Amino acid sequence: EPEVTQTPSHQVTQMGQEVILRCVPISNHLYFYWYRQILGQKVEFLVSFYNNEISEKSEIFDDQFSVERPDGSNFTLKIRSTKLEDSAMYFCASRFYTDTQYFGPGTRLTVL
Amino acid sequence: QKEVEQNSGPLSVPEGAIASLNCTYSDRGSQSFFWYRQYSGKSPELIMFIYSNGDKEDGRFTAQLNKASQYVSLLIRDSQPSDSATYLCAATYGSGNTGKLIFGQGTTLQVKP
Question: Which of A14, B3, B80, B89 has its CA 20 to 30 A from that of B71?
Fold first, then answer.
């Protein structure tokens, strides 16, 4: 069964460093999302992406964040200058035309 | 502010019992509702989705939607210890090219052998 994959599973970085989180959505899906979950808190929407552009972004998704779909398979989230409060699980999700989103296993980001 | 509310629990039921999980949502514009299961440290795993008023059954799981009351529920019959997890209710907001999910804080279910 097709699934969303994410790499790395765990990323440790120093405050102020740039990180890139990678996702490979399900191959025929058209809509792509990033969510994050701070430990013990809700899953929060960050950004949605369709037809090679951002379709919606949350207040969390400020100028330090960017997304890209550099080729036909990868979908990346870049954080330019990480802060301590960026420490969280980051989930990629994708969907086809229906509303049902499928989540990847997540990347645990730890900012020291 | 669009909100999805759940009782965080924990909800404790004995093995073999029915577990009932509830969720309310604030925006009548939401069209689709989802239940995800999340084990500690793992990603949300889709259990069920429901779009129309009424009940939808899938094996041991039944989702119920009441749009007039803005209420969604999930029943788990014959609960097993492996069902112990956090259950996330989510609603879709935005049409067209968005369709973001807004999640509740999750209800922790404990099924005791």
Answer: B80
